[in-house]
Amino acid sequence: MFGRVAVSLAALALVSASPTRFAPKAPPVTALLDACQDKDGWADPAPPARIDGQVYYVGTCGITVLLVASAQGHVLLDAGPEEAAPLVLANIRRLGLNPHDVKWLFASHAHFDHVGGLAALQKATGARIAALPDQARELEKGEPFPDDPQFGLIHGFTPIKVDRVLTDGVPFLLGPNRFTAFATPGHTRGSTSWVIRGCGKKVCPAIAYTDSTSAVSAESYRFSDHPAWVAMFRKGVARIATLPCSINVTPHPSQSALFERLAGDAPVADHEQCERYSQQALTKLDERLAKERAAK
Fold first, then answer.
1. Which overall architecture, per CATH, does domain 16-294 show?
2. Measured between alpha carbons, how far is 274 from 194 in angstroms, rounded to an integer?
3. Which of 71, 114, 195, 219 is the most buried (most CB within 10 A)?
4. What is d(CA 241, CA 281) in angstroms, rounded to the nearest whole number?
5. What local confidence, expressed as pLDDT, does residue 21 receive?
């Protein structure tokens, strides 16, 4: 399955006390590839791996969770389902880091497979949660809103109090790491994509954590019956193509062929990754709409 090549003035400055330890030591990427060979379960254990700089994969074989580390504290992006929370904590410790040094928790979208473990991780780390307005409402509700295409198809999760509501496109700083949240609605109304830069004010490669773009729905839902949602979906997905994007990572690693790229089957860094990801999503949305029209 995998090859074996290892491979703003408005900015929010947040300074935290220095962590007790900061010495990340990730296993070789081959350990992740071996563990997830022919596995993509949401709770299939996977060892941590370094993606670039101080950005580490600490999720499972089927669900991405990113740890962005710094001496001033760490950030987790996504949590996986509830049963994955202990695995994420174990991966943080395996990096030689203290989970209590995680200061903030962010998310891609508020479905249980990506945020079901947030409450457990918040309890274990003491971290605070930040989100854009629409996502904040979804997180605090603990289940999809009725207008979510997957309403009735997927179950909820433990509601989570959001400590800080972010502003679209305004950087959030923690140590040298800069996180910018961009609203990219479609998969959910609160879908959020992130651009991570880890070198302070210097110009450096951008890791884009782009949200899911699949037009998945409950069986009775027809996107063609919801033109306003479709228009929002198109706009959100198109925005992904405009993001700074040296390395694209997605909430399910398979969506961006992350493991294959880490294995050397394709470049890890490619400035056109987000454009291709966006275009593929728009094509699939058009295919879904055509299928709905043909079924009438």
1. 4-Layer Sandwich (3.60)
2. 12
3. 114
4. 11
5. 57
